[in-house]
């Protein structure tokens, strides 16, 4: 059985502020397993592919500038219901609407600088993982990730 996977990305402001460890800690504390991590210099080509659904949005040029402002850290996490639960750990897109206790609720106030990205569906996760990790990822699974019944 292959465990559900999601693509979580620490955006340039999160990397700049030294929040990578904090974000890893929250996913590990919850019980998820990190299966890939890499720091990337972004470029327009990969960002256009990553955000292909948002190209027509009025905020897209601002989003592109933001995502080009520094390196990002891309991660693949796996575990039960990790796509949906991962988005809950991140909080709402708008940090001011994010509950305290979520990453965005605790660390930011501006939708244009909201620290992190999380795939919004299993299908998007598969697409994003292939985009950012084209050479594939390790598929090792911890025993404790499965129900042992
Ligand atoms: P993400 O993809 O980063 O996890 O964010 P999301 O699904 O929660 O939100 P989405 O609508 O896909 O937007 C992607 C990113 O665009 C920026 N944004 N700016 N009104 C604005 O200025 C605005 N709206 C969205 C945010 O960085 C958002 O995470």
TrEMBL record:
PROSITE patterns assigned: NDPK, NDPK_LIKE
Q: Where does ATP bind?
A: 11, 59, 87, 93, 104, 114
EC class = transferase
The domain of life is Eukaryota
Q: Name one GO biological process term.
A: GTP biosynthetic process
Assigned EC number: 2.7.4.6
A molecular function annotated in GO for this UniProt entry is: ATP binding
Which Gene3D superfamilies is this protein grouped with? Nucleoside diphosphate kinase-like domain
Reaction catalysis annotation:
a 2'-deoxyribonucleoside 5'-diphosphate + ATP = a 2'-deoxyribonucleoside 5'-triphosphate + ADP
Q: Matching InterPro entries, A to Z?
A: NDK-like_dom (IPR034907), NDK-like_dom_sf (IPR036850), Nucleoside_diP_kinase (IPR001564), Nucleoside_diP_kinase_AS (IPR023005)
What does this protein need as cofactor? Mg(2+)
Q: Which UniProt keywords apply?
A: ATP-binding, Kinase, Nucleotide-binding, Transferase
Give all residue intervals belonging to the Nucleoside diphosphate kinase-like domain.
3-139
Check the record and name the HAMAP family matching this protein. NDP_kinase
Record-stated family: Belongs to the NDK family.
Quote the protein name from its UniProt record. Answer: Nucleoside diphosphate kinase
């Amino acid at each position: 059985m292959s465990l559900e996977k999601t693509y979580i990305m620490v955006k340039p402001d999160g990397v700049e502020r030294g929040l990578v460890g904090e974000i890893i800690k929250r996913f590990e504390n919850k019980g998820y397993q990190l299966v890939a991590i890499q720091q990337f210099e972004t470029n327009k080509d990969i960002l256009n592919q990553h955000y292909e659904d948002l190209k027509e949005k009025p905020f897209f040029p601002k989003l592109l500038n933001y995502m080009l402002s520094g390196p990002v850290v891309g991660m693949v996490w796996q575990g039960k219901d990790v796509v949906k639960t991962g988005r809950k750990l991140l909080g709402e897109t708008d940090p001011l609407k994010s509950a305290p206790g979520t990453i965005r609720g605790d660390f930011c106030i501006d939708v244009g600088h909201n620290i992190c990205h999380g795939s919004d569906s299993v299908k998007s996760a598969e697409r994003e993982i292939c985009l950012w990790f084209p050479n594939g990822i390790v598929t090792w699974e911890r025993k404790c990730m499965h129900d042992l019944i």
